[in-house]
Write a structure and sequence with these properties.
With 316 residues, this protein is mainly α. The protein has 2 domains: 4-196, no CATH class; 223-302, N-utilizing Substance Protein B Homolog, Chain A (Orthogonal Bundle). 69% of the residues lie in helices and 0% in strands. The protein contains 15 helices and no strands. The protein has helices at residues 4-20, 26-66, 73-76, 86-92, 95-103, 112-123, 126-133, 139-154, 158-167, 171-188, 206-222, 224-233, 245-260, 266-280, 285-302. The radius of gyration is 25 Å and the shape is elongated. The two termini are 29 Å apart. 29% of the residues are buried.
């Protein structure tokens, strides 16, 4: 699931894109922000669908083997246990999953050679051979081979990685969220009644989290000049071109959060943006941003510009 840090990253990426475009259209930019968040969920559904298609290729493989010029006895009677994997069967019958596959128009059959190549590699693994040899299967035991296919076959296949990178520009970051969502789905599907299992939600509380990321995005851009002035007053000895745009955006977002989000402690806000600076800006950005934000925070406290609900939310 997406947590607040992931949502801050999404806002950061889209605010940066807004600064880099000539046409400053906040409404269109906000739409792109929400689409970029939704793309994480699409990635998750596409990966689930790929797992389904790999298991279903068992039937195609069986037909191809039976149609060999000189099929063996095994070719004529192949083990199709994976085709009836209990987890996959429950997933395919889940109405939420089916609706989302239709929503995102997922169709891995458009690239049959890709799915075939995965299945061929899978057949060569000792884990798959051991799975076929096991007697019986429960919903819980059926998940082990799916975990293996996901972690050790799909995520290790460069063609699969390339396919997702081509589709999702933020794959390097978003794939980590997707992995967690797949893992949570495997854990949470515990009932053989497909109507009693839930897919992993986009976030723990999407109504609240969607409001948070929209407000963070809109308020940061709406008050861009105001926050720039606050930063400028504390960076008079710096040439503006020497301050990285990413540093400026991170500071503006932090100021926005301190001033507009009454339930988020100031210390949490500052720590979050300092952590983001480690991944998204220069090696020296962390200490620079920390120093400037500390001075701005003191100014905001002095003018009573920070309103927080709850005791101890302003103190560092």
């Amino acid at each position: 699931m997406l947590n607040r840090r992931h949502l801050r990253i999404k806002a950061l990426q889209n605010i940066y894109a807004w600064h880099m475009t000539e046409k400053k259209d906040t409404v269109s930019s906000q739409k792109l922000l929400m689409e970029s968040i939704d793309s994480v969920y699409e990635m998750y559904i596409r990966m689930l669908a790929l797992l389904v298609d790999v298991t279903e290729y068992t039937a195609i493989d069986a037909i191809e083997r039976a149609n060999k010029h000189l099929p063996t006895a095994e070719d004529l009677n192949p083990n199709q246990k994976l085709l009836h994997n209990k987890f996959i069967e429950v997933l395919k019958k889940n109405p939420e999953y089916s609706a989302l596959v239709n929503k995102y128009q997922v169709n891995w059959h458009a690239d049959p050679d890709l799915v075939k190549s995965i299945f061929i590699k899978l057949k060569e693994t000792k884990e798959y051979v051991a799975y076929l040899a096991e007697e019986g299967e429960t919903l819980e035991s059926s998940k082990e081979i799916i975990k293996f296919i996901f972690r050790k076959v799909l995520l290790k296949n460069q063609n699969i990685i390339q396919a997702f990178e081509d589709k999702f520009i933020n794959w390097p970051v978003d794939s980590e969220v997707m992995k967690g969502m797949i893992a949570k789905t495997l854990k949470n599907f515990t009932n053989e009644d497909p109507f009693k299992n839930k897919l992993t939600p986009i976030s723990a509380d999407w109504p609240e989290d969607s409001a948070f990321v929209k407000d963070l995005f809109v308020h940061t851009l709406k008050n861009d000049s105001k926050y720039q002035e606050l930063i400028g007053e504390r960076t008079k000895n710096w040439e503006s071109e020497r301050i990285a745009l990413m540093d400026t955006i991170l500071m503006k977002m932090a100021i926005c959060e301190m001033m507009n989000f009454t339930s988020i402690p100031v210390k949490v806000t500052i720590n979050e943006y300092l952590e983001l600076s480690k991944d998204y800006s220069t090696p020296k950005s962390n200490s620079f941003i920390n120093g400037i934000l500390d001075k701005i925070l003191n100014d905001l406290k002095r003018t009573n510009s920070i309103k927080k609900i709850g005791r101890g939310l302003i103190e560092e």
